[in-house]
Design brief:
By secondary structure, the protein is of the alpha/beta class. It is 43% helix and 15% strand. It is built from 12 helices and 9 strands. Strands 7-6-5-8-9 form a 5-stranded parallel beta sheet. Helix 7 (187-200) links the parallel strand 6 (174-178) and strand 7 (203-207).
Length: 306
Amino acid sequence: MRHFLTLADFSKDEILEILNIAKKLKSEVKAGKYSNILANQTLGMIFEKNSTRTRVSFETGIYQLGGHGIFLSSNDTQLGRGEPIKDTARVLSSMVDLIMMRTHAHTRLEEFAAYSSVPLINGLSDDFHPMQLLADYLTMQECGKDKNPIVAYIGDGNNMAHSWLMLAAKLGFELRIASPKDYAVDKKILKRAEEFAKISGAKIILSENPKEAIANADVVTTDTWASMGQESEKETRKAAFKDYCVDSALMSIAKSDAIFLHCLPAYRGQEVSEEVLESPQSKIFQEAENRLHAQKGVMVWLHQNR
């Protein structure tokens, strides 16, 4: 049995296999077909962090696959009252077929997985957001940006930056990350990505200069400067990141046919300008829809590899 906690746990071939399943399932939906691959299967969805895209895409996804989703917020479970994770994991996994957890510390996912008897999917943690990266790469494939791409990530060295590190390191493309000095990626996660990069041939470049990072890039991406739980740091972060807004001037340094990605929600005028977000280069809504299809690919793959 496999869990899906981080892309670090999967080979290049496995990642591409999941994406191929996602593309097939997406084409079936577009053709007006619905699959029953997960008929009579139940997905338990634990949300310790709020969500729009994650909840709707997982709940819709399991339905389109013939199954059923159960939404569980912190107020709906005994986890919110302090029940040990290992107890909830053993009880819940005895009643459902798959579990998705959107939480804070990544260690909570790791502990849950250790005691779960069914596959656990990371819907987001403070360290990683692998579901989003599958949707991002699916979008890159659809836009013809998956052949030796140069990807520029501009902004906070957060869970999105960490997940880009893992995707690039596994698939072997060039990733440039530009962040202010005090907001760089986690050194331990970077070291792990660099070890994978030695095998795949990926090129990872860290910088504090967004112009250097974005030069001649095929894909430009960013994220909010203050993630959930960092609201009290918002003003401090706005000052630190003031030169990291992906506006038209910065975007013009990338290739003329470069695409722009953002996991959303986006704060216009902060990490990205309104003009870039609404430009033809912006693929954010195609990317958002692909959360649905990428996650269906993961659920089917985990079901097939139990």
